[in-house]
């Protein structure tokens, strides 16, 4: 794909994924996410030709101008859209596929001092919500959605949703939408729903236990004998009132 065709694609994806975009001129002049990606394509070209210092310097300038830090060695696929973008960090060995959408303060970070692959791989059609941190040499599968402020430290299967700290992976029960899945406000509360389920089962169990209470009106003067678990082998409370 030629440079001009790549630029057209980048502008088109901004219109597809940002309803605030009104004109091509506005997108070209006022979208720092696109500026950062365009800078990166130049810097990556220089990096691959051994001009690493120049590439790092231009990446530093791009960070100053856009608030977005992308290492020149990172591999970025076509139609990456970074919306708002302030605080986005993409590390050296990160790989980003096609049609990926990121929001501000996303980090694709490393967790090792060793050389080699230490940053995430993001497959095609992934949406990463604002503030999300994806750490380590892990893979986020195609068509997945990472919730805002999630911390992802293990690989994510395709077509999944990740929420929470650390990230809880929820496999979708339905196919992902054909259009970019930008509904990153629709997130399951996996832990909360699990706790509610446990509490409901506990309440049911307590009602069952209460139905077995022994009424001893004659022997204990109307007291209700309730079952309690002994603590340290010692019975307490109203089980054995003396």
Fold blueprint:
Blueprint: H1 3-17, H2 24-30, H3 32-48, H4 52-66, E1 69-70, E2 75-76, E3 81-82, E4 89-90, E5 95-96, E6 101-102, E7 107-109, E8 121-122, E9 127-128, E10 133-135, E11 139-140, E12 145-146, E13 151-152, E14 160-163, E15 168-171, H5 190-210, E16 214-215, E17 224-225
Parallel strand pairs: 1-4, 2-5, 3-6, 4-7, 5-8, 6-9, 7-10, 8-11, 9-12, 10-13, 12-14
Antiparallel strand pairs: 14-15, 16-17
Helix pairs in contact: 3-4
How is this structure best described in words?
This protein is of the alpha/beta class and about 240 residues long. The protein contains five helices and 17 strands. The strands form four sheets. It has a six-stranded mixed beta sheet with strand order 3-6-9-12-14-15. A five-stranded parallel beta sheet has the order 1-4-7-10-13. α3 packs antiparallel against α4 (about 50-65). Mean pLDDT is about 85; it is low at about 215-220.
